[in-house]
Amino acid sequence: MASHYQAALLVASPSYPNSIAWSNENLVAIASGHIITILNPALHAGPRGLITLHPDKPFPIGVVDKEDLLSPCLMPTSLSRDVRPCARSISWSQPGFASNSGCLLAVCTTGGHVKLYRAPFCEFTAEWIEVVDISELLFKHLESTEFGEHNASEFHQKQGSTGCTTGRGCAEELEESLSSKGSGRRKRKTLGKRDGANEEFVELSYCSKKAKLRDKGGRLAASNTATPNKVIEVESGTFVVNDQSLPSRVKGRSSLNGENNSFPLITAKQYASRSALLSSLVVAWSPVVTLCGSKCAILAVGAKSGNISFWKICTPQFYTVEHDGVPADAILIGLLQAHSAWITAISWGVATSSCLKSQLAVATGSCDGSVKIWLGDVQRLVQSTEATNRSFSLLTEVTNATSAPVSTISLIVQAQSQDKIILAIGRGSGSLETWIYCLSSNKIQCAGISEAHDQVVTGLAWAFDGHCLYSCSQDNSVRSWTLHGSRQRQVPFPSNFPGIKNSTNLSQVSDQCFGLALAPGELMVAVVRSLETNLLNQMYQARTQRAVVEFFWTGGQLLEPLEKNVSCGSKPSELSKRELQCWECNILWSLKNFENGDKLPVLWDTIAALLVLKKLAPTFVRDLLSKWISSWFPEKQESGYMEKTLLHVQNMLSVISSRRIHLLNIISRRLMPRKEKAEVPKWEQHNFSDKTYVEGETELWHNFLVNSERELTERLVASTFTTVLSRAALSPDSFSVDTSWFPIGVAQMEQWVAINSKVVHNQLKVLGSKFKELGTRIDSVCEYSKSEVCSFCTGPVQFKSPDVASCEGRKVEGGEVESHKLSRCAVSMKLCSITEPMWFCCCCNRWINKLAPQAIFTMPSSPLDVNCGCGSFDLDEVCLPLCPFCGILLQRSMPEFLLSVCPV
């Protein structure tokens, strides 16, 4: 196995396939036992986020007769001894669905409960915050529909004939608490009596084994989940706990949340059916779907019943880091009976063809071995507000029921072949299958079936637009495969890369592999393994080191079978010509992939690889970047000279898209950093122009950075000016002040144009000169205030820079003038507030108080360009928390001891 780049130890071991997930905002989540660990791959030994799972309260689905307790359908419930919940499945949403524009994490536990969590950006804790309980919403829906049972009226009649009565309250209210470590012994505590009657309430403490509650007829009550501190009304008879008896009789009443509940009497099959509907097994988020400006994602939840419930979660109406005032609403829009057995795997993709509109493709796998592909109508899904099965249609049944259950699947639609759906299937037998479905011809073919592993396949991930597949197994192996045409072949896993950090080799003590996940740039893969505790130091390691996450480089991955006469570098510090070619091809693919404006630029793995390669082969990195930039100008045939390429780009900035400029700015700051001058503050380093601190190529990149940031500022100012003039041309009744975006800082932008009048576009000065014609009307269409005062001393502040400012200060003792350094918003150029939390860019270290509209990040060229025309912003569109100079996701600046995101 290859040497890992870095490793992070975990305090608990995973137990299920796909126990690791890598978000598109560069966070890694690992489901290990009762804890989900969230870490930053850039700081794997730094702060971490946690989700601690607690036992959930059972749903009151009903009770069954004593005679039905030994029914075959109830045996799994009767024999269940799960005490502590364990994470079974996790899945990240795309960025933009949390109230701070981050990702939501869906967690499914072994108890069958599904919940959504967000980062604690305003709570300042390590524990992540629950935002939605999907299982609770599903129960309410199923309860309102009588669990889909057609003869529901008969159940009510049977319930009435048994004499089930409404429970009565207990003498005193109890506060529920659950200790994760119990002694496993039962305690009986008298809580009170009712009106002198010979009836008393008892409390049973939490046991290490699960308590089965039965009523006076021996009926099994509630659900198949243990509940702490149950309060049961006791008379005479027998109360059964783990096959032990108490001299009492239970009437079948229990207090949940301090309220009394009565359960309907149902048959054993009905109990098993309802329990299966509520017992979730797997969760999976869809890609973002957009219709008429509305963005949403679909969460698929697979259950033991073979049903899949689909939940629509829309992006928030606005984003904030000040408070969590934007609730996340989940709407049930579909229930699909996909299989007749347990749903064990779900994977999403976006499929299009010449005859079809963009549709969501979802592949589902079951424990009976069957695999199916479904198509979801995007328009129906986005517009749907109620549960229906009309939004999805069966596309094809890939495999029928077999003896080998499906453990994991991975679906991808290649960007170059939008009408082909490629599906990889991993099974419990260790076999790996690859299938290709053509939408235009409605035909499916097998690309390969192999006994890839000796044990259960626990992870699959497509990379490099479906040309490479990574698989891992419980036999502790990780393998890579390529897809050439319609044939699947195994290729060597990349094992040689310079700059490997020296860390403890854990390959000798690792036991099983429970999943893998690719970085957003797909140049690195993370693998989670459990550790064999018997091989660890029993005093110092075995107690705290139960699993490990290892990060491996995949940028040198061969995408075709290795020829016999091709050799790799003999030393870790060497790379062969063939390996360098692989790195060049894969890095270029990753960079071009981020040119898509819909994909959030997360270049952490790309920049990390380029930094190592720059030390080893600076000419290789220079030629690679030159080739990438030259591909933007097909008419310019020459490439290879970085100096000429950068000069050409500076002259063509007005016709380059904002996304490409953002990528170049990130590379300029992170890959070609300037030497900082000690006496110059950090926030002014980007304005420091002493060329003695920049030499050679770094000077070229710095000059480009200055010009590119001025170009982006011009685009922002031009669009703001045009928006103000467009509003002024309309009547006051034709627009509402209460919109998603309102122009502010117009006076400061006007001053910036005046200061840089010699270098800015002439059209920008023409737009600014029109403000004088508006007179006092300008205050009704935008915020226009030239005067600014210091927040510390109320001294006047003059506009000199769009990033920083200094007040004129006030006199103190001794006659000296005390001045304060202030920051300006990178979007509005106004002074930032010192009391309200602000957005922060971890790349350029700028602060932002007013978010920019989405249009500023998707401009194909400058709005001042003659061919483009100067357009205004759509005031009703949601403002995105993205840096206008780097394009990366903004965040709230967190203390060093708390987890934060590092996209670059």
UniProtKB/TrEMBL annotation:
InterPro entries: GTF3C4, TFIIIC_delta_N, WD40/YVTN_repeat-like_dom_sf, WD40_repeat_dom_sf, WD40_rpt. WD repeats lie at residues 450-491. One of its GO terms (biological process) is transcription initiation at RNA polymerase III promoter. This is Uncharacterized protein LOC109724071. Transmembrane segments: none annotated. Coiled coil: none annotated. The keyword Chaperone does not apply. It comes from the Eukaryota. GO terms for molecular function: histone acetyltransferase activity. Keywords: WD repeat. One of its GO terms (cellular component) is transcription factor TFIIIC complex. Residues 22-148, 283-548 form the Transcription factor IIIC 90kDa subunit N-terminal domain. It holds the Pfam family TFIIIC_delta. The lineage of its organism: Eukaryota, Viridiplantae, Streptophyta, Embryophyta, Tracheophyta.
